[in-house]
Amino acid sequence: MATELELKYGCNPNQKPAKLFMKQGELPIEVLNGRPGYINFMDAFNSWQLVKELKQATGLPAAASFKHVSPAGAAVGTPLSDTLKKIYFVDDLELSPIACAYAKARGADRMSSYGDWVALSDTCDEQTATLLAREVSDGVIAPDYTEKALEILKTKRKGTYNVVKIDPNYTPAPIEHKDVYGITFEQGRNELKIDDTLFANMVTENKNIPDAAKIDLIISLITLKYTQSNSVCYVKDGQAIGIGAGQQSRIHCTRLAGNKADNWFLRQHPKVMALPFKKDIRRPDRDNTIDVYISDDYMDVLADGAWQEMFETCPEPLTREEKRAWLDTLTGVALGSDAFFPFGDNIERAKRSGVCYIAQPGGSIRDDHVIMTCNKYNMAMAFTGIRLFHH
User: pLDDT band at 54, cuts 50/70/90?
Assistant: First the structure.
């Protein structure tokens, strides 16, 4: 391993020179293929921390799909239902636990994951590499790769796909630094351990959070720890289904992430599952078309005849009433927030996306109103007392 690594450029092509280096010791990474750039490594190091912590907290293989230094998705490696296999386009693949984790991490928000950076907590195996090989992605970081997996990945993107191996035993210095405008910031690393002890302070009338929901809340909080703030994260069955990153107001985070969670569930609607796509339509085009189909824009697509480019026959619209009736069946969703909810409007919006369990720091002058709103819907909410800003 080297002490420094020269990069093509920084965030933008005009930002030269650029490099990675260690002030002491060797870099804990090895580039096995390709030539990752500045933003690639920003995604790689943030996403690696996320999956490493998810694995430590849950004991399950974990994966993340990153775009622009925030996760588009994160998940642990539990089996997928037949429905999820179909909407994630993996029903034709054999999936190992780590492959399941990535299928879920990418599948929850496939549009945002297009051209992603991938992080895997465990060795990348042949099944995961096979999945990666057919998706549009910039690169992957993992603690190791099987010989067959590396062989597959080296054929991707005409041999230029970025493959990074990281030392899983690497421990950063407890103090970290960052330069902004020629001025150096220093702070202690955020070494906060996230586990179910954070849910001891139950502030709602309903104080019951099942074990599975606690795991989902842990996933939401660890995901938030590496998401650009402000942010909230909806989680269901071991995977993030909606992440609202980098918004200036809390309610906009909640709406953005809630809309993504709604889209995730609407993709499972029988009408969506039965869409009569033409056989030669690529997966990204299907993703885009499904997104239009479940939006309010589909009536315009019908009117101008654009459906003929994608479908064998014209699908009936999914009406607003049908969408609302379907979404009303979504339940058991966990929601984490990286800072307190200032008003009950966030809870009202969360309820529309099936949220039953919430973990947030608390500390707003309107905590009483937020708690009252949770009680109205029999939600269980814990005040963690910890903030998870990430910048």
Answer: very high
Q: What is the pLDDT of residues 32-48, one digit of tens each?
A: 999 999 999 999 999 99
Residues 24 and 159 in one domain: yes
One domain for residues 80 and 219: no
Per-residue pLDDT band at 221 (split at 50, 70, 90): very high
For the domain that residue 353 is a member of, what is the CATH number?
3.40.140.20
Structure tokens at 279: 């056989």
Residue 345 lies in a domain: yes
Say whether the peptide bond before residue 230 is cis (omega within 30 degrees of 0): yes
Q: In terms of residues, how long is the chain?
A: 391
Domain count, the chain: 3
Residues 334 and 213 in one domain: yes
Closest residue by Cα to residue 78 from 95, 92, 53, 56? 95
Q: Which residues contact 376 (CB under 8 A, 6 or more apart)?
A: none
Are 16 and 155 found together in one domain? yes
Domain that holds residue 252: 188-266+327-383
Global confidence as pTM: 0.96
- Write out the two tokens for 233: 């994260």
- pLDDT for 1 beyond 70: no
List the catalytic residues. Answer: 67-68, 230, 391
Q: How far apart are CA 192 and CA 352, in angstroms?
A: 31
Looking at the fold, whether 254 and 284 belong to one and the same domain comes out as no
Burial (Cβ within 10 Å: 0-12, 13-18, ≥19) of residue 248: exposed
pLDDT in tens, 107-162: 999 999 999 999 999 999 999 999 999 999 999 999 999 999 999 999 999 999 99
Within a domain: 175 = no
CA–CA dist 12, 32 (Å, integer): 24
